[in-house]
Amino acid sequence: MAEPEITGGAGGVSADYADLAMLARGSDDLARTLGRVAVDCHAVAADPDVLASAVLSPVTAARFEAALVEALDGPGGLSGQAAEFGVRAVGLRAASASYEATDAAGAALIDAVRWSAGAMAPVTLPAGIAGLLITDPGIVTGLIEDPGSFQRIITDHPGIVDAVVGGAPGLLGVLTGGGVVTDVKGGADLIAGLYPDGTPVVTDVTDRFPDQPRGTVVPGSLGDIVDGLDYRNGQVPGGTPDRIDVKRIVDPDGTEAFVVNIPGTKDWNLPFNGFNPETNDLGTNVRVLGGDVTARQHAIAMALREAGASSTDPVMLVGHSQGGMVAAQAAHDRGTADFDFNVTHVVTAGSPIGRVDVPDGVQVLSLENEHDLVPHLDAADNPDRPNWTTVTFADQQGSAESNHGTETSYLPAGRALDQSTNPSVTGFRDSASAFLPGGRDVRMEVSVYELGRKP
To answer: Where is the composition biased (Polar residues) (predicted)?
Structure first.
């Protein structure tokens, strides 16, 4: 596997912006300090004792006054230095704000272009398809003879998904009369209305599903964290109720930390099929993509409470696909009635969470396979922020399912991170020591919970 691309985190661009802002604050402080010293020193020239000494020794007093003026107001003097640092602070602050504004404007422009393409799709799409068939009729024949080639094409070029998803709000806006849907979140929220959510139900099933040794390994590395997610994901095949696990890590001094493993979507139900008691369904995907709080999020909060977590204990949420989406949304809602827990860390694998406003106090590590289509379903890159590290790796398995799998794709990438010396990765790893006790003499309890909902 080639070296991954790592953005954000301690070594990211926004960390540089933060450094510029910090340097600006330091320059401001220094300018004020030098200015105060200069004012105090100017007062010395008018001191009564200095003026009295001028009568006794005019020449010496004149030399003193000249030296003082030179030190304060001459080239390189304190007054000039204070002004220079003040100007530098303004420049640094302006540069930081300008860079950040440019990045934000670029993202907004991409959204606008995709929206416009979607709005024009009823006119341009039929003509585009006709033109393609005329110029290259063999493409249809090729897809008929080898349907799997379509997966290869789209997983080799996942930007197609960004374009389609990013254009969908424009198309929905046209179909609904315009103005109703303006962005991806709005489009998802509109569709989410077709899926009733319900009231969460949580059942402790730890005794019914005793963990194998792999499920009870005390995590000591990022690879172990992803391995725990892969294990839980494998224990919840399609067609079975939603289940998560909560790991309670207790240090010798009594401090506690909690790791929650949240598998991805297992029920691909379509709208209009009535109420669905399973929380890991397609409806939850759409609702959380629209920025909504879901029954699954509330159920995870209930499970944490049953596992003994308090509102102050540090919590790491680890999720695959939809599990990562719910984890990011829960982090957004941390400390509120929607998720009253101290979420300090989030780890996602193959999750479209680029539009979730995760608080600065939450450290995020996002793993994304370049050939996985699912992270593109929000049509947005993850933000480059000091608290958010995104690791993008290339692992083409040949099919959309394998490219998205925890075992086939994300577990090897997670294990590889244990050897990384990238400052963003090591920064995240160091910050997560409460959840990576390694050789510490800790006690760990694993609880398994079945999640559901009722009307």
So the answer is: 396-409
For the sheet with 363-369, list strands across it.
Answer: 5-8, 388-393, 363-369, 342-349, 314-320, 256-262, 242-250, 443-454, 199-204
pLDDT in tens, 277-325: 999 999 999 999 999 999 999 999 999 999 999 999 999 999 999 999 9
**What's the Cα-to-Cα distance from 337 to each of 41, 228, 298, rounded to whole Å?**
57, 28, 9
Contact 282, 269 (CB under 8 A): yes
Beta bridge partners of 334: 339
For residue 378, is pLDDT > 80? yes
**In the prediction, which pLDDT does 132 show?**
47
Taking only the tens place, the pLDDT of each residue in 400-444 is: 999 999 999 999 999 999 999 999 999 999 999 999 997 789 999
Identify whether the C-beta of residue 407 lies closer than 8 Å to the C-beta of residue 431: no
Q: 379 and 363 in contact (C-beta within 8 Å)?
A: no
Which CATH number does 198-454 carry?
3.40.50
Would you say 297 and 330 are in contact if contact means Cβ atoms under 8 Å apart? yes
Domain boundaries, the chain: 10-106, 108-190, 198-454
> If 0-12 CB within 10 Å is exposed, 13-18 middle and 19+ buried, where does residue 67 land?
exposed
Q: Which residues pair with 347 in a beta bridge?
A: 318, 365
Q: What is the pLDDT of residue 438?
A: 78
Instruction: Check residue 167 and give its pLDDT.
Output: 76
